[in-house]
Amino acid sequence: MGSQFQRRTTLCLGVLLVMVSGTMGAAPKKPVDVPFGRNYLPTWAFDHIKYYNGGSNIDLVLDKYTGTGFQSKGSYLFGHFSMQIKLVPGDSAGTVTAFYLSSQNSEHDEIDFEFLGNRTGQPYILQTNVFTGGKGDREQRIYLWFDPTKAFHSYSVLWNLYMIVFFVDDVPIRVFKNCKDLGVKFPFNQPMKIYSSLWNADDWATRGGLEKTDWSKAPFIASYKSFHVDGCESSVNAKYCATQGKRWWDQKEFQDLDGYQWRRLRWVRERWTIYNYCTDRVRYPSISPECRRDRDI
């Protein structure tokens, strides 16, 4: 981390933090990439997952019969989770590639990346969402500033007691702050598993379902590598992590974005955001409490 310090008021927690400038999205040391089987296992359609390089790379395959997916072996309460993905190339309309964290109960917490396929020549849409206490409907959508089908790019989540941050190649594209003081639930006591899947969602994924999956283009393939997990592993019934406050993501410099990251986030909002539930007065006539505060960021 850099040596220049700056101060910023943490808006949702009301705590004045001393921030260290630098790139908060990456762990203090280079993440260690491990083979798929170290932390993950297939969950369905096992024959639609292809393995390469000793399991360090995998492909998920979708055809007219089925898609496929995988999940982490462990459940985690806070941490930093990332993987590199190369999305389905060409005409991918109707397909969804998902990477998300989710708890295992009815009032579930969930942190979503969903990549919505396109007709050839149209850009992919990245949709993010956050569920807390079983409530979602917090969609935000952006266009990416690169072609995500040409090369691998890193997609990651930082989750601690203070905030959830979505990153694309270490650029923060969304922050969901802990706003419990406003009555907004925040995921803090339900461990989550990590999931990814490739599936057909042509009833809604591309232009609201107007563009259907062209099965003559199948099989559709999404490629993965660099399966990085740095979280506090816990049982699904645990309420608190035994190492809470002792891991790098709990430290002060990771409790808010630094100035450079806030500028990058504003760049994403101003140039690449195409939908934000916070500004949708048709679906949500009343502004959500976290949105009212978010406008002041």
Automatic annotation (TrEMBL):
Residues 1-25 form the signal peptide. SUPFAM superfamilies: Concanavalin A-like lectins/glucanases. PROSITE patterns: GH16_1, GH16_2. GO terms for biological process: cell wall biogenesis; cell wall organization; xyloglucan metabolic process. The keyword Nucleotide-binding does not apply. Its main location: secreted. Glycans are attached at N118. Its EC number is 2.4.1.207. GO terms for molecular function: hydrolase activity, hydrolyzing O-glycosyl compounds; xyloglucan:xyloglucosyl transferase activity. The active site is at E110, E114. Contains at least one intrachain disulfide bond essential for its enzymatic activity. Residues 27-224 form the GH16 domain. It is an enzyme of class 2 (transferase). It is found in: Secreted, Cell wall; Secreted, Extracellular space, Apoplast. One of its GO terms (cellular component) is apoplast. It holds the Pfam family Glyco_hydro_16. InterPro entries: Beta-glucanase-like (IPR000757), Beta-glucanase/XTH (IPR044791), ConA-like_dom_sf (IPR013320), GH16_AS (IPR008263), XET_C (IPR010713), XTH (IPR016455). Keywords: Apoplast, Cell wall, Cell wall biogenesis/degradation, Disulfide bond, Glycoprotein, Glycosidase, Hydrolase, Secreted, Signal, Transferase. PANTHER family: XYLOGLUCAN ENDOTRANSGLUCOSYLASE/HYDROLASE PROTEIN 8-RELATED. Belongs to the glycosyl hydrolase 16 family. Catalyzes xyloglucan endohydrolysis (XEH) and/or endotransglycosylation (XET). Cleaves and religates xyloglucan polymers, an essential constituent of the primary cell wall, and thereby participates in cell wall construction of growing tissues. This is Xyloglucan endotransglucosylase/hydrolase. It comes from Morus notabilis. The lineage of its organism: Eukaryota, Viridiplantae, Streptophyta, Embryophyta, Tracheophyta.
